Automatic annotation (TrEMBL):
InterPro entries: MCP_dom_sf (IPR023395), MCP_transmembrane (IPR018108), SLC25A3/Pic2/Mir1-like (IPR044677). Interacts with PPIF; the interaction is impaired by CsA. Keywords: Membrane, Mitochondrion, Mitochondrion inner membrane, Repeat, Transit peptide, Transmembrane, Transmembrane helix, Transport. The lineage of its organism: Eukaryota, Metazoa, Chordata, Craniata, Vertebrata. It is found in: Mitochondrion inner membrane. GO terms for molecular function: phosphate transmembrane transporter activity. This is Solute carrier family 25 member 3. Belongs to the mitochondrial carrier (TC 2.A.29) family. The keyword Secreted does not apply.
């Protein structure tokens, strides 16, 4: 009985082998070997697969009506430079995408990307330049708050070096970098926003006729928000630089100020900061824009479109320095008030202004002209360089619209 059972099992197993073999032969007849290999390498039908060249038996052209070919998951046909899906394939596809895009500009004028990159340019232009001139700013602030001790620029540097050493000239660099980076983000970013917004409200003809007013209004609107971002760090900077022994770092100064006077300590100087920075920024942008326009019209011997990028950046630097000199003169009285106000506790802007008098508010003007002139020129140079690097739209100086020329009888 046991022997019979064993024989029955063996016969059943043999039948299963025969069925499997017949199915295999049938599949080979129905599906070519190359298609079977492609199905095995299909990523949609198998979770694990490998890409490799598969050697296939040659097939006759008379039998199938076409020439012999070899297939794999990433086949290379005659004349192809690389495999489909290889690293070289993806690299060249990406390069083709770059070439297919507009080579002149990277984004649309007035788009979110445009505003974001303008804000980034503002961070670099303001944060880096203000941090670079911290030693000069420190001496300028000390001349303003203690003119009896720090009489001139050179005297201020010598006294500071004698008392604090070389490291003392770097006091306040951290709040300067953080504060003016935030200010630059809002100043340049919002300036572009408001300029386009107000221009759309005015229309093309009025934008040209009232362009100086447009620059003034746009820059004033942007600076209002920029000073709110700057005020806390500006208060810490002045306290570190002008009040000996109070604190040497931002980490020491900010908690101490908050513990003594609360949140108001960081914003009590925002109104005089508006008094200083809004006129400064209005002059900075309006004077720069009109100076660039005048340079291309009367000084540069060829149109802006014919100038190379380095030549345009030189014009930007020169116009920025000229604007910076005017900025320093316009904003200096308010700057003196801010410096004294942030040093003293419990004082108001009116009290400080009355105590300084007409002559006192102009102390340190020479240092401020040197600092602000250089600073403004570098800021515009860096900002314009960022625009060039990222291929942002850079509209040329404004020209009178054709419709306005016809109205005024100036059209040919």
């Amino acid at each position: 009985m046991r022997i019979l059972t064993i024989l029955t099992c063996c016969l059943g197993e043999r039948r299963r082998h025969l069925k499997t073999a017949s199915k295999t032969l049938l599949s080979r007849k129905m599906y070519p070997t190359t298609l079977t290999q492609l199905a095995r390498a299909n990523p949609f039908s198998a979770p694990l697969f490998s890409l490799r060249q598969v050697e296939e038996p040659q097939q006759s052209t008379t039998e199938h009506g076409h020439s012999n070919r070899r297939f794999a998951a990433a086949a290379v046909l005659e004349g192809d430079s690389c495999e489909f899906g290889s690293q070289k394939y993806f690299l060249l596809c990406g390069f083709g995408g770059i070439l297919s895009c507009d080579s002149d500009v990277s984004c649309e004028f007035g788009s979110m990307k445009y505003y974001a990159l303008c804000g980034f340019g503002g961070i670099l232009s303001c944060g880096l330049t203000h941090t670079a001139v911290v030693p000069l700013d420190l001496v300028k602030c000390r001349i303003q708050v203690n003119p009896d001790k720090y009489k001139t620029i050179f005297n201020g540097f010598s006294v500071t070096l004698r008392e604090d050493g070389v490291r003392g000239l770097g006091k306040g660099w951290a709040p300067t970098f953080i504060g003016y980076s935030m200010q630059g983000l809002c100043k340049f970013g919002f300036y572009e926003v408001f300029k386009i917004l107000y221009s759309d409200l005015l229309g093309e003809e009025n934008t040209y006729l009232w362009r100086t007013s447009l620059y003034l209004a746009s820059s004033a609107s942007a600076e209002f928000f920029a000073d709110v971002a700057l005020a806390p760090m500006e208060a810490c900077k002045v306290r570190i630089q002008t009040q000996a022994g109070y604190a040497n770092t931002l980490r020491e100064c900010a908690p101490k100020m908050y513990a003594e006077e609360g949140l108001w300590a960081f914003y009590k100087g925002v109104v005089p900061l508006w008094m200083r920075q809004i006129p400064y920024t209005m002059m900075k942008f309006a004077c720069f824009e009109r100076t660039v326009e005048a340079l291309y019209k009367y000084v540069v011997p060829k149109p802006r479109s014919d100038c190379s990028k380095p030549e345009q950046l030189v014009v930007t630097f020169v116009a920025g320095y000229i604007a910076g000199v005017f900025c320093a003169v316009v904003s200096h009285p308010a700057d003196s008030v801010v410096s004294v106000l942030n040093k003293e506790k419990g004082s108001t802007a009116g009290q400080v202004l009355k105590r300084l008098g007409p002559r006192g508010v102009w102390k340190g003007l020479v240092a401020r002209i040197i600092m602000i002139g250089t600073l403004t020129a570098l800021q515009w140079f860096i900002y314009d360089s960022v625009k060039v690097y990222f291929r942002l739209p850079r509209p040329p100086p404004p020209e009178m619209p054709e419709s306005l020329k016809k109205k005024l009888g100036l059209a040919e």
